[in-house]
UniProtKB/TrEMBL annotation:
<protein>
    <submittedName>
        <fullName>Bone morphogenetic protein 4</fullName>
    </submittedName>
</protein>
<dbReference type="GO" id="GO:0008083">
    <property type="term" value="F:growth factor activity"/>
</dbReference>
<keyword id="KW-0964">Secreted</keyword>
<keyword id="KW-1015">Disulfide bond</keyword>
<keyword id="KW-0339">Growth factor</keyword>
<dbReference type="GO" id="GO:0005125">
    <property type="term" value="F:cytokine activity"/>
</dbReference>
<feature type="domain" description="TGF-beta propeptide">
    <location>
        <begin position="2"/>
        <end position="110"/>
    </location>
</feature>
<dbReference type="Pfam" id="PF00688">
    <property type="entry name" value="TGFb_propeptide"/>
</dbReference>
<dbReference type="GO" id="GO:0005615">
    <property type="term" value="C:extracellular space"/>
</dbReference>
<comment type="similarity">
    <text>Belongs to the TGF-beta family.</text>
</comment>
<dbReference type="InterPro" id="IPR001111">
    <property type="entry name" value="TGF-b_propeptide"/>
</dbReference>
<dbReference type="InterPro" id="IPR015615">
    <property type="entry name" value="TGF-beta-rel"/>
</dbReference>
Amino acid sequence: MFNLSSIPEDELLSSAELRLYRHQIDEAIADAISDDQALHRINVYEVLKAPRPGQLITQLLDTRLVRHNASRWESFDVSPAVLRWTRERLPNYGLAVEVLHLNQTPRHQGRHVR
């Protein structure tokens, strides 16, 4: 869950971001990957309903295309979800982060919910 309990009720949020640090892929692996295979897509979703095993109902909040050869921070706009949770008092079921390698089959993809 995205903990918002410390924000006073009289505060108005204007924006919110999720920052993720990503490590570059190991050089030995990276050398074997051609430039056209070096891209990953990172998707950040709001989870709209309580998760059930193997089933998430989500809404895409932000996405980014990244190269595998750099360690760096990535920032994602999660304002729409946080504003719904604070202004509209909708339930907070958390965020889901999905990393897609653009040239791999779905069974090699990763998705993480928190």
